[in-house]
Structure formats: structure tokens, C-alpha cells
Sequence to fold (304 residues):
Amino acid sequence: MKLGIMTGAIPDPTASIDNFIAMAKDVEARGFASLWLANTRGHDAVTAMAMAGRETGRIEVGTAVTPIQPRHPTALAQQALTASALARGRFTLGVGLSHKVVIEDTLGLSYAQPAKTMREYLEILMPLLGHEMAAFKGDLYRSKIEMIVPDAANPVPVVVAALGPMMLGLVGRYTDGTALWMTGPATISDHIVPTMSAAAQEAGRPAPRVIAGFPVVLTDDVDGAREKVDQILQVYGQLPSYRAMMDREGAANPSDIALIGDEAALDAKIAQIAASGATEMISVLLETEPGAKARTMEYLQGKL
Fold:
């Protein structure tokens, strides 16, 4: 199981393009496989990771994830192809449906028929990222266009945030895999991997990537860290899609999904995640106490 780092899951008033580039260089120098940025209310994740990829030489950079509804699939495809060219072929586009409260209440867009929205979106996005004509006419989207970006990877890899069975089926049939959040190892093993893998096998596609995002805190103050994690990540326990995964895992709070404890405790949890079928674990480092992020980073580096 590969190890990477994820950022952007919580607001960061100090975030900047220079900081993302510095982080990417540090993550690469430490030997991690990848760096991922969530697209929330800060920097555009595709652009930021394209710049980070341009300034590094080995690591994969990606979005985890970019919501699809605000951008037509042809627009996002063009941006992703350009990002791939900037990152010299090491950019992976992660997309998702976001949440009803964001798409409808905040942006004023429709969140109706989410699985259909994603299927039609992928019917256009995937050919374009494979440097092919996207000729499609659906109920929600239509296109008849080809992109010409010869210095992009062919194809640009795509992963989708998918939790329910319909979405996992789409991931297996169309894309390279899934990017997960607030999803524990039992759920990955019993639900995510078999559902997605069956769809991929039926479609004649390779075994999908399972990129599992987890909050990680190396600490001796487990109770204090759990309380702080639940404060920082409170919103994730309230969003319906994540709440469903937490309930499936038997987790009451985000801290029940997180990896929190000393080295032995984290070792055991990482082994459990690897055994679940996750191909990659991407860690979100949280400053639950002074020095926690730096200490956790050093620990994870030692696992490479």
C-alpha cells in the first residue's frame, strides 16, 4: 500500500501557492508517493496541484476531489489536460458530486439525480482525457468536441469520490478508482472494494485504485486528540454521505475513523487499512496539539 499526504480538508488561512509548492517538494523529498488537495473554498485544486507538479520531479499530484457541477465536463477536461501537461504527466483528476448543502444551498445548482449526473459527465470527460472525440447527447449534458493537448498524459487518470453502490458501479465501469474519506477499513473491505471491483471486472477494466483518506495523529494524549479531531472535523460527521459510511463502520464520530494514538496503535491501524484492499492511504495531518503534525509526518515517513 502506497502512502501519500492530503491537505485542504479543513480551511487554512495560511494556504498559498508557494506553500503548496513547498509542501509538494517536502513530501517528495521524504519519499511519499503523492500529494492531494481537496477543492473546497480556497485555491482551485486543479491549478494548485498543476503548479506543485511542475515544481517537483517524481510524486503524483491530484485533486481529492473537485466537484463536477460548477464546471461543464469539457471545461474541466481542458483544465485537467493542461494540468497534466504542467505536471509532466503526473497529475490525477479526482472528481465528486460534493453534497446537497453545497451544490443546492450554496451554489444554487441542482443536486437532483446525482448518479445520472455523474454518469453523463463521465461519458464526456473520459473520452476527452483519453484524447478522443466526446460525442454525447444526454438529458443533462451534451458535447461534440475533441481537445488537442499533446503534452498531456494519455489518458489523464481519473478517480471519483464514490460511496454508494450506484456510484461505485460507475467508478468501476468508467474510471481508474475511487478517493475515499470518512470510510473505515471494514467498509472498504466489505462494501467499497467488492462493489467497485465487480463492476470493473464486468467492464473488462483493470482492478480499481482505492485511495483511502484518513486523519492521522501520533500522540500520547489520545483522549485530548480525539476531542480535538471531533471539533475540527465536526461537519463531516453531519453530511449524509459520510454519515452513512460512518454508520456502516459503527463509528459515532470522525475520531472513530481517524488514526489516533502512539506508534504501535498507528501501526496496527495502517496494517488493517492495507489488509482492507486499499491500494493507497493518504493522510490528513491535524495539529491537535503543538508539534503534532510534524511528529506525525516523521512517523509516516518512517513507514515508507
The CA atoms of residues 1 and 274 lie 6 Å apart.
